[in-house]
Batch of 2 targets.
Target 1
Amino acid sequence: FEPITMQILQGRVTYNEEVLNGVVYRRELWQISSIDNKVNIAVYNFTTSLSADFDINAAVAALTKQDLHGDTDCPISFTELPDGIFEGIKTDCRDSSNGHHPAYDITFTCNTFIVRVPAAATEATDQGSYVFTRVKDRRFPIPNVPDGYQFPC
């Protein structure tokens, strides 16, 4: 996950890349909005290459609205709980099983990201939860933050 700034999507945008066994299989741009303790994310997929030598800065600079596609009726939604915990659901609108899109339950904090893979998902891996924990302090700068912003982590 990397916060980015781009002309064709306004507001807060994060680049998301998913890799399995060294192979990139999904690249997305997440347009993020929030009201009170609710966070909503509109997901846009790239139509560009999934090659490993991908340059995010060059790709984003060259994107047009026609390069982005996604189902804006299929957002990601999170609720902020006490102590900096977020819980939510990411529905995978690119996947369908018996006419339904699988929904991944997600919990994350500043240092941990837990994803429960639903039985309806097409992953070739075992079903269950994946837990990702930050092992070193690698953070991306957050663009366009207001003066006086205090990073909660």
Target 2
Amino acid sequence: MVARMKRMSFEQRLLVVSVISFLLGGCLGKLWCLLLVPCGKRSVRIPYGAVVDGNSSIHLAGFQVTMMLLPVNRGQHFNSLPRNPEVERYLGEKPCECAGRSLKDYFASDDWTLKQRQRDNNLRRFNRRRLDPPDVHTRADGLSPVSYPAHGVVVRPLRAVLLQGVRVEWFEVDDYFRGTVFEVQFTGKRGVFTVLANIEDVSIVGDNTDNMFIRTTKPTHLNQQLQKVVYRNTEFNANIYDFVEMRYMGFTATIPIHIQHRQLPWLYEPEKGKIGDRLTVVVTASGHYDHLRRLVKSIEQYYPKTTVIVADDNPADVWKSYQVRNVKYYRMPPNKGYFAGLNLGISQVATEYVLIVDDDQYFTKKTKLRDLVSMLDHTNYHLVGGSVETPGHTLGSTYRILGNSTHACVESQRQVYHEIPGYQGCYAADRVDSFFLASTADIRVVGFDPHPAQARTGRQGRGMEEFFVAALGRLRIAVCRQVTIGQDSGGTRGQQLAAGDSDGTGGQQLAAGLDLEDWHNLLRNNLTCRGQFSS
């Protein structure tokens, strides 16, 4: 063999070496395929944008092949690795630990069974009306052959939207050369599909139906047609999602389409420069009219001509007429409660901002409302509070909803989150413990619960806490340490009950009122009990 090779010319020897190298390379390639790469399919996936020339050579326009990607081994043995406890304690939500009585402790056994059934029915009605965007999520499989919008597609009811960003990313080269028909399917439940324009050599089946097919033998034409796909809503709903499914080559992609009316803003008359023109003060009268007069006088001293709205539900034996300049006075039916009074007062506000104060508080030179207005003007916060000049008064609190849908509670901590950039001394929080300024339109959406269970305790009870719990996830709340207000001693309705007489019945009335309020709030918020409180 060697002697024969020596007698060959250089060109002949080169040919023999080339043939042997080709055969050896083919054998090694086959061995590689059998050992490492699943070779059940003899096709190649061609990304959209690749160049396929007449000799069947394949390359990406402007790129060179530098590596081969292998499928990832999804071995289960990694699941047994030890977890980092410092990281794991932040995952999910920690269980609820009750502090005090549970809701069921307020009922007899038979009554509790009935109350549970009523509460479950009420919860189902609430959930049917609820739309929570975080509940809408999509998942994209690895090596997906399509690109699509996973979020942000919005259409007005009974209108249409162009599905931008839909395209095929790769196809099978064997199918391309065999002239196989490439098919993309769109399905939906609350609308139909059509196309803005027709591309040549593309077939549309099911046009203007909720199940449309796009078919062609040319991937380039397929992508051009996909750029023209239109979704049209046909089932009216003011605020809901339709989950459109797009299928191609056995893959399914979900495109969430938000069907929603356009929401209009609530704007107010242009401000005139004075703080008093930007806000209205709302206060409920507790029966201590000397305190109320001091509050109104202090407002007039530091912010002249500011409108004050007073809601008074005092009974006839306590009530006194109160008519002062710049004060709008509303007499309510007796004993309707602190929060019913706040609702009445806020309903009469015509300015962009509303300031909620108690009648035992009063303005000082440190009550810098301009700072609070500036923060609401220039940040995305809805409510900002101040603090009380009394030593030891807390600044704010944070809340956490713990547990699950069947056993949940609220945990409270006397702390704030972080200082707000650009506003030294102001911190993000979930609750403020004193007076506060809020966007009128936004605070109306949350509102105060006027239920009679909270009428007996007023601000001394948990009603104000329940307002801030109801505001979780709805209002962004901040509190500023340097903006303070003065406060008289006594005067609130809860303190009147506690000190109402010498035989202790006032304290018993307050305790009974707190029990009734506790029961109502647990039932209203679908909570099992109250969580831990830490200072």
